[in-house]
Amino acid sequence: MADWRNTMECLVRDRERALLGYAYLVCGDSTEAQDLVQDALVRTFSRPRPGLTVFKAEAYVRRAITSTYIDQYRRHQRWSRVQHLFRPGDGGDDATLGVDMSADVTLAISSLPPRERACILLRFFDDLTVPQIGRQLGIAEGSVKRYLSDGIERLERSLGPLEDTEIETTPVAGYR
After folding, report:
1. Is the pTM of this model over 0.90?
2. How many CA atoms within 13 Å lie on the side-chain side of 162?
3. Contact between residue 162 and residue 154 where contact means Cβ atoms under 8 Å apart
4. pLDDT in tens, 63-98
């Protein structure tokens, strides 16, 4: 019982800033990033995982951050399609429209759809291969390549030409 607590304490003590930074890259909002990290820690440590090291726990938490963000985005999209049925005339505007983003990259990444953002971050921030991204997100490698291609194209429109944007470095087994 104390084993998972020690692992969690070490993870939070030693890697909290890195996890918060990763979550911020995923969602683009510092408050939401803190919530994502908290939710990911709860999801990771809410059930027993024997032999969980700090390194493996960080990988679990990072995956949980990405999954939680995508789930929340989907839930928000579904709600936005039916919310008019529950309340009349919503005149609210996006509260983030007047906010000045301090970095062009942050703004460009935050403008990507969730799947493209997740694939871009997993590929270029976590340095995962296309097959690893597909396994982590539970999608086909072809879909990962498409999301990466679309995401890179959108980033290049915002930021200009990007260097080292090769999507696939290893051939997929059985394909040339």
Report:
1. no
2. 19
3. no
4. 999 999 988 888 887 777 666 555 544 444 555 444
Range of the domain at 145: 99-161
**100 pLDDT above the threshold of 90:** no
If asked whether residues 5 and 82 sit together in one domain, one would say yes
Distance (Å) of CA 146 to CA 17, 27, 134, 167: 31, 21, 11, 10
The DSSP output letter for 83 is G
Token output for 25: 């890259």
Q: Are both 39 and 109 inside the same structural domain?
A: no
Maximum separation of any 2 CA atoms in the chain, in Å: 55
Structure tokens, 158: 């915002």
- Residue 67's nearest CA partner among 109, 125, 22, 30 is 22
